[in-house]
Amino acid sequence: MQEILVLTTGGTIASRETENGLAPGLSDEVIISYFGEQPAVNLSVERMMNKDSSNMQPEDWLRLAEKLKAERAAYDAFIITHGTDTMAYTAAGLSYLLNDFDRPIVLTGSQVPLEIDGTDAVRNLHDALTFASQTTLAGVYLVFNGLVMAGTRAIKTKTKSYDAFESINYPYIASVQDGVLHQHFTPKVNDKVLVSELALDPNIFVLKAFPGMSVELFDYLADHVHGVIIESFGNGGLPFEGRNVVPGIQKLTAAGIPVIITTQILEEGQDIYLYEVGKRVADAGGIPVGDMNTEAVVAKLMWVLAQTRNRDTVRVMMQTPIAHDLDFV
To answer: Is 53 annotated as contributing to ligand binding?
Structure first.
């Protein structure tokens, strides 16, 4: 008999109508009753929190990680029901905090609440249970609309449609159809494992580049944050004419503050040395992270900074593939 623990956190899947709009309100007993059955599977359920996922914080990732670590030996797999808006951030955060975990951890949720007609929740719960009970893979995964994604590669790309999540720059692991698991891709198991304390440093800032971006922002950041992530244009480019941001990156780097350069473009990652506008950023100290998505970069930088503030070590750790997050820099 497989023992699987379901941890509930709230989200749309558990929401009901209130005078202020949808808000989490379903009991754990109601949620677990919709899972359906798998042969030789015993489900347990425990509420961890009851939040709209817009209210989820890094401290909540730590609570989940601590719970999962404490219960690891007692269960064969874990399912986390979660709101969709920040599910990808939580999946990435758990992927780093528990990158040495030897059980499957499966996150799922829904676009429509469980008790509303036409909900996608029932399918997602069934599919999550199918994957959790049948997979031989360890680590963190997101299951949604019949697709299984690595926890560091999932991004929410739609606000209403059932196919709300995509696996970006990485193959889908598997699919589930009518209760049958179809494995499509087996991740490499040689990603580096970095055992660490369960800790995060959320004192970071994410800046999306835009034409007209103020260079004075960097003066403020230098005095207030431990790390900066810039969503650059295209392959890693930022302006050096007119409003020149390159000196700002140099200032942060000189102060020992790592500046991580990702891209606003979802697919295909970046090649920061391809254009002059990118090479100047790299020469100023910007740290490129290839084809990682922003959700994973945010979680990884918080996790790395909790272990070290040394900029050179931060660079090495950010550019080290962990939990399938990075294929090239």
So the answer is: yes
